[in-house]
Design a protein that fits this description.
Radius of gyration: 25 Å
Distance between the termini: 57 Å
CATH class of the largest domain: Alpha Beta
CATH topology of the largest domain: Aspartate Aminotransferase, domain 1
Strand content: 5-15%
Number of domains: 3
Structural class: alpha+beta
Strand order of the largest sheet: 1-2-3-4-5
Number of helices: 13
Amino acid sequence: MASDFDLVRATLSDAHPAQAAFDYLIAHALAAGFMLVPRTSEVRSIELQWPNRKRNPFSVQAHSGHVNFYLRRPILGEHPDLFDAAVAVFGPVRANSLGEYRSHLHDVEEAEKMLAFLRTHSAWPSHRHAQRFVAATFEPIRGAHLLAAAERLAAGGSTDPFGPSSDYDVLFNGKRLPPKAVFGHAASAALGFLVRPANFSAGETTFSFRMLRAHGYPIVRKGERAPGTDPLVSDEDRVWSEGNTRLVTHLRRERGTGLASAKRDAFRAEHGRLYCERCELDPVAIYGADVGEACIEVHHRDTHVSEMQEGHRTRLDDLQCLCANCHRVTHRELKAALLATGAQAVPP
């Protein structure tokens, strides 16, 4: 069942610039410490409540193509000149029956203009931590967002507005990338508005590092050498491949940084759950939600390693979700097929 907050947000047209403006305002409100008070009886709005004060100085009202941002009486009482100052910046508007100022916001640029105005007049928290988004704001980030960001940066894309890394690097396909840029660009794509360096922190114990590592991205200190062993090929894999260069390459392609996480996220979004595409095993139904999904692994399907050229870029559609048993059977079948075609092995 949808929450009251979801009901308010659903009023906005999906992927409309006004929806991004709404999300932008909510992200900054949570960062500044406001409590969210949804109203759904007469209008669909989110009132912003000062912590521990039970007073709501602002209101964000959702419409299909715009957001009404209200300066309500509690803030006008503390800042009596704010109404006139708003008129000078945003233009005249007729106050409602409660004497509140209403501004129509249509996109993120207009939402940021309103927040900058409030900070300038000390009506909105402006200290550094008041711009640090809470972890829940980043929940829309998926593996595909991180993978796309890492691929773009690895291909020479700009790190702006984050710049080069200072203390840590993300290891991605033989390259070192700035962790904050990878996470920040992924967050911008997921949230629909520009996420800036001030909006999150990086470093050990931070949410951004935890999310990157949870999606399979190794992070090392700057200057630290990458692990000497190949993390993509285990001892068991080496026995299976018997030195066959095509099979070893298959494993490295299959387990490329971020691919498995992105595929699982995409499969879960499409089907609502993870299950084996070969035997249709639903591990969550058997083992429970906490551990069941660990049974599902990711395998190359459409583009076989024998057909891959140097620089091949794996698409998520090239990958298949398989249970551990079916994955091993499929690897055995792949090995037999390659040996049957005369694929050469190298001495171990």
